[in-house]
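Input chain follows. Return structure tokens only.
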Amino acid sequence: MVACRIDLSDREIGGPTRSRRWGVDMKLEAVVIPVSDVDRAKAFYEGLGWRLDADFPFDNGFRVVQLTPPGSG
């Protein structure tokens, strides 16, 4: 499952010497990655310098971990 935030504002692409094209500015908001070992995956991404934003364990054994890569908002 992938969730995206999309800015639907139109913008012109190209300069005066190029043909005019219009595009949509899209930004990736969140990616859900199922893993078999949450602690191992969390350690892997933290080792890459990702920031831990949330770690929510639930009573039924389900766990949500959110990390943000360096340079991201």
